[in-house]
Amino acid sequence: MTxxxxxxxxxxxxxxxxxxxxxxxxxxxLEHVRVDFLGxxxxxxSAVLRGLGQLPPEDRPKVGQEANRVKGVVAAAxxxxxxxxxxxxxxxxxxLTLPARRRWKGGLHPITQAVNxxxxxxxxxxxTRARGPEADTEWxxxxxxxxxxxxxxxxxxxxxxxxxxxxxxSHTSPVQMRTMEKHDPPIRIIxxxxxxxxxxxxxxHTPAFMQIEGLVIDEDVxxxxxxxxxxxxxxxxxxxxxxxxxxxxxxxxxxxxxEVDVKRVITRPDGTRVETDWLEIMGAGxxxxxxxxxAGYDAEKYTGWAFGMGPARIAMLxxxxxxxxxxxxxxxxxxxxxxx
Length: 340
Ligand code: DAH
Known about the structure:
By secondary structure, the protein is of the alpha+beta class.
């Protein structure tokens, strides 16, 4: 027969200790409780452990085990109450309400995003991407495009010449000729790239800017193909309710020539839908037979259409930006708004 008295006593001690811990109002009171129960010399639980040697040998393991368990429970309760009390009197070590620091994440420039979005739509319609040199000759930039050198556009006032007849291309249209020289029809290309003009730097002009050239050459290509493709592009870019209109215009390399406008439907924050004004998005037209001949193609057999548009203008419109220069100041606070 073993004596259960010490075990029962330990249970009572545990209950007393836990109650004393819970009602300790400050750290001093808590320290008294600790000394009272776990103190080396006077601690009541410690005393039980010390007295193990006086117990009959068969009782020792059981009582020893129980005493250690109670000691652990009381120590843990002391610890928990101690940090609870610390929380009440001092600032918490960690402020969990502080917003996490954001990791810096780069993003595409809004104009690059516009170029990509436009290119992807034409890519889905079966176009490939083409490119040409930014420094090109008068021939590719003007003459091959049916533009005589005495044309105002070829004037040194507008064009940045490098040496003699070499210049910084003033539009992406020279990529038309460079592509036609290398490939036989059918041709369906999109050629985004930088172009350069002697423009003053203001809210709507930058001396270097992006253009996107489009060119289609094949047998039996008509103005109807052109209107249908442009309409499809506009609806995919701006939404299914977008309208497209073609205004007669003049470019030396197209006949007839047109300026293309779009009218969008936008949804206001209050949910009402309104039509925007007409906005010009590109110059375009049916490729002039002289240009087709200059490429060495048979102009009786092949026809085509072409366009040139300004993605920066399109990005300005999309984001409600009214000064082009903000795109080029490289102020990260401005640009980060467009990071996707
Ligand atoms: N190259 C013209 C410009 O920079 C834009 C343009 C108009 C391109 C008509 C074309 C076109 O391909 O057919 O103003």
